[in-house]
Amino acid sequence: MPISEARKRANAKYNLKAYDRIELKVPKGKKELIRKYAEEHGESVNSFIGRAISEAMGAVPRKNVSEAKKKKEIAVELL
Question: Where are the domains of the chain?
């Protein structure tokens, strides 16, 4: 079933309120390499990039949050 125009507007309104956007520019051909890598590892491009940023910033990746809680570590997540 197609998404109604009202639902599209509601989703867009929520996204504006709940999320910041970052534009990422990569050399030609790199986007496809990133997409393939993420897909091969069971992630979306957005999830892969968010996880890579979190790891680079020393945050606990989402997949390891429950493990970190067991160790009583503080988990910082980027969505």
Answer: 25-79
